[in-house]
Amino acid sequence: MADNKPLHGILRYTPNEGFELEVIGSFFELPELLHRRQNLEIIQGTSSDGKGITLYKCFQSKASFGSPSIGSQGIRSTRYKPSRIFVGAHFDKEPVFKNIIINYSYLDEWINISGFEIPMPSEDRELIIKYKMPKDITMALDENYALAITHSSEGPNLSFVQKESCIKQFTYIRIESKKENTMKEYDDIIKKIRNFLSFGVGKAVYPLTIIGQNEEYVSFYGTKKIYDDIGIYYNYMKIPNTFEPLIPPEMFFTFEEISDSFEIFIRNWFNRAEVLAPVFDLYFSNIYTAKLYLETRFLNAAQAIESYHRRKETTTKYECLPEEHEARIMSIIYSAPIEHRKWLDAQLKHSNEVNLGRRLKEILSLHKEIAEIYIGNNQEQKDFIYSVVTARNYLTHFDKDGEAKSAKGKDLLIIIEKLKILIKACLLNEIGMDYTQIKTILERYRKHSFMAWVE
Fold first, then answer.
1. What was the pLDDT predicted at 403?
2. CA gap 204, 16 in Å, rounded
3. Segment 218-263, tens digit of pLDDT
């Protein structure tokens, strides 16, 4: 770096390009810039209102040159794209945080805990609105992290001519750690909570506000420690500009419905997230990717069920015992010509795994009551399995013989909805929900789904 003198710059944000810092001049000498791209781990700055800003892992995206003048070295400006922005603090190295506070889209609606008390107006036209901050709901995620549902409020506003007064309440998830961690360590937790909320809401959920709290940025009110709020922003995080209104009855399930068991459910979700990671990825790809072809949605749903069966401890994984299958393979390979043995070994490698049809049959058997309600009787379940297998095979291999048999259009959409119900039942069961509650939630879901229109 050429020197530590301050440079002027502008930090811009656009939905398509994300954050980009344009620095007037350069931190480096011209030969250094011409030799190679000069990325920076940390860039510190100060906003126009005096807040400290730290840009982390800054990639040099552009450098502009002009005719050299006295002291300019011919460098007009350089631009950097930071991976993360921290507003409210200056860090000399990768920041660490004791607590992280997140507001997600639809979190207020999903939690739906209000501190407002609004009685009916009295006969003398007196209207009283009371507000009391709801108490925090805290629980342990594991031995290192705790989770809290917490609230904040804004207002009321006061003016010389008082024509209105407003109080706004906001709901947050706070993650508390026994030690300070980097954002990379928190990212996994933020994602798992986002997925759980998305599962409950039934729509894509995004972190709208992320606040970090660091032990170096604190103040004291008497003996009480108060953390400064440090705003955390990710570059390239695609978040919609608007969200369609959604009320609790339209959600898959709400916090109120599971509040008595929420700690158990969220801990089970975290505990199963690693094992079921491929299932989560396939399931949530259908939720978070709005413009997917119907065929892709079907394949994601079918593969999610298949992946779930593979990872379920109690399901059948093989057609016969592995040692029996190994002996069978060796017998087949050694009876083949030498030049074909390597190819044959590769073809038979996974031949002992149960096929999709059997996997579906076992999943339906595991959720017998759900299958009877939403798939049908034994014959209808057989037809459903045949339809899924046929469509999966055709959309994987695109063989002409399977084209005529494969479901399309509305028929494929119905199959997708039935697969979604099965996946939802599996995931609800994984978090520890009993079947009485699962059936209640699924019944409400069906009334608001595509299934209600075709039945």
1. 85
2. 19
3. 988 888 889 999 999 998 778 888 899 999 999 999 999 999 999 9
133 and 151 in contact (C-beta within 8 Å)? yes
Least Cα distance to 436 among 257, 303, 177 occurs for 257
Return d(Cα 152, Cα 150) in angstroms, integer. 7
Q: What is the structure's pLDDT at 320?
A: 65
| Same domain flag for 303 and 448 | yes
Q: Which of 87, 116, 142 is the last residue of a domain?
A: 87
Tally of CB atoms within 10 A around 280: 23
Q: In terms of DSSP bridges, do strands 224-227 and 207-213 run parallel, antiparallel, or are they unpaired?
A: unpaired
- The DSSP H or E segment spanning 340 is helix 338-348
More confident residue, 420 or 64: 420
Same domain, 289 and 433: yes
Burial of residue 357 (CB within 10 Å: 0-12, 13-18, 19+) is middle
State whether 449 and 309 are in the same domain: yes
How far, in Å, CA of 131 to CA of 140, rounded? 28
Q: Establish if 44 belongs to a structural domain.
A: yes
Give the whole-angstrom CA distance, residue 71 versus residue 123: 77
Task: Please give the tally of structural domains in the chain.
Answer: 3
Residues 34 and 146 in one domain: no
Q: What is the pTM of this model?
A: 0.87
Q: Domain range holding 60?
A: 9-87
Q: Are residues 166 and 220 in the same domain?
A: yes
Same domain, 177 and 249: yes
Query: Cα–Cα distance between 63 and 76 in angstroms, integer?
Result: 8
What is the pLDDT, as a whole number, of residue 68? Answer: 56
